[in-house]
Each structure stands twice: as C-alpha cells, then as structure tokens.
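Hi all, posting the design record for the shared folder.

TITLE: backbone redesign
STEP: 1 of 1
STRUCTURE INPUT:
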C-alpha cells in the first residue's frame, strides 16, 4: 500500500524522474547541436529569448499556483485526520462519565473503528466510494451511544456533549474522504507537462559557444522542472506514493487508549479498596 513507502524513498523517486528527464533533454540537445551550429542558432536569439521569457513567466505562474493549490488540499486532508483523531480521543475519555458497561461498549466500538481504518480502509482511499464495512462499524458506535441512559444531570450534559463530538467526528471523516478524492484533472496535467516540455525545448534554440555551459543550463532547467512536477504529483495524491499521508495520528490514539485503560484500571482498583 502507498502509505507503507519509506520516509526517504521520495528521494529515489525524484532522482529517477530527474535523471530520466535530464538524459532525454541532453540527448535532444546533442542531436540539435549536431544538425545546427551555434552560429546558425544565434541568428534567432532575439526572438527566441523574447518568446522564452514570456513562456517562462506564464509557466512559472501556473506551476506556482498549482503547487499552492495541491499543498492547501494536502494540508486540509491532514487537518481533517488530526481532527478525527482528536475527537475519537475525546469520545474515548468522555465515556468514563457513563456506567461501566456503557463505557465498555463505547470504547470497544471506537477501538474497532480505528483498527479497521488502519488495517483495511487506509490504502484504498484513492477509490471513490464509501466503504460499507466502515459504515457498519460507525453504526456500532452510534448504537453504543443509543444504549446510554443518563442517570443524572451530570451524565446528561456529558452525553449531549458526546453526541455533538460524534457528529463532528463524522464530519471530519467525510471531509477527509471527499478531499482525498479530489485530484488535478487530465487537462491540468496536460498543461503542466506540455509547459515543462516547451520550456525545456527553448534551450535547444540557443546557440551557446561553450558546450559545457549549455549542457549545465539545460540540466538545471530539466531537473528542476521535473522535480516540481514530481512534487505536484506527490501532493496531489495524498494517500499513495512517496509522500502519502500515514495513519500516524490514529496509531498514536491507539497508544493513548492503552495508557488511559491502564489509568482507569488503577483508579478503579483504588476506589474499590
């Protein structure tokens, strides 16, 4: 699954893409320079330079706004995950104000939900569908709260607060899912890739006398643009690829649950003495 990719593997992916684009660009540059001498290319320098500056500005604006767009969406998904985890933690702890049997059912259903999301649901988020198994588990959470019968005003207040948090938890879950389904369209990707190719191709129309300088400039441009496109792809696919969001927040909540359960047992043991 995508989220299992190692933390440093993005470097390997990026290098593979950058090296491939650089090799192709240098091969085309070598072929062009074999056909046309730098003296012939210099004849059109004024027009090429003017056009290149216009294309460069337009493409940099498009690419910059695209990076900001996918980064904002990536952050929104991450924020929704954190909100979901925080609300699960609140619900788990607030269950202490109900009876022992009611708290046990609530906490068991919350644990079951986290276990299922991490083990079964996390990887296939790229699929545009609501998972039916998760829906049944969420129904179990609702059923556990439906069984709660507040015995006093204090329990009623906590019950009302818990229902509100439960609704917010479902909202955060849906936001996480819906935002993860959004991607750049084929038209946008066509524009980004075509723009990168056209920008690099302009380097072939300059006639630098120094072949090494021409090679270095072409290498830098091709490598940088390919890395930027790789970054856009990584941020655009939040649950797969080298920069996939991992279920770290939910895993930490599981650890917190274990710690709280131990504290609850110790408190019950002291209260019974």
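Okay, here is what came back for every position:
SEQUENCE:
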């Amino acid at each position: 699954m995508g989220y299992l990719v190692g933390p440093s593997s993005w470097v390997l992916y990026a290098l593979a893409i950058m090296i491939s684009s650089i090799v192709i660009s240098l091969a085309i540059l070598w072929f062009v320079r074999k056909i046309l001498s730098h003296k012939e290319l210099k004849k059109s320098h004024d027009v090429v330079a003017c056009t290149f500056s216009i294309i460069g500005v337009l493409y940099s604006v498009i690419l910059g706004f695209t990076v900001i767009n996918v980064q904002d969406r990536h952050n929104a998904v991450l924020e929704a995950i954190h909100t979901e985890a925080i609300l699960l933690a609140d619900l788990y702890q607030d269950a202490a104000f109900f009876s022992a049997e009611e708290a046990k059912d609530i906490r068991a259903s919350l644990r079951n939900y986290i276990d299922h999301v991490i083990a079964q649901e996390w990887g296939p988020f790229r699929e545009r569908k609501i998972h039916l198994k998760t829906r049944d588990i969420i129904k179990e959470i609702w059923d556990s709260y439906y069984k709660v019968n507040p015995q006093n005003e204090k329990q009623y207040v906590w019950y009302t607060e818990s229902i509100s948090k439960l609704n917010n938890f479902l909202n955060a879950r849906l936001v996480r899912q819906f935002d993860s389904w959004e991607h750049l369209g084929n038209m946008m990707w066509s524009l980004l890739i075509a723009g990168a190719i056209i920008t690099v191709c302009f380097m072939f129309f300059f006639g630098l006398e120094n072949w090494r300088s021409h090679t270095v400039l072409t290498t830098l441009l091709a490598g940088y643009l390919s890395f930027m496109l790789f970054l856009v792809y990584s941020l655009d696919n939040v649950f797969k690829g080298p920069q996939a969001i991992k279920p770290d927040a939910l895993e930490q909540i599981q650890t917190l649950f274990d710690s709280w359960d131990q504290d609850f047992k110790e408190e019950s043991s002291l209260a019974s003495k």
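COMMENT: DSSP finds nine helices and no strands in the chain.
Let me know if anyone wants the other runs.
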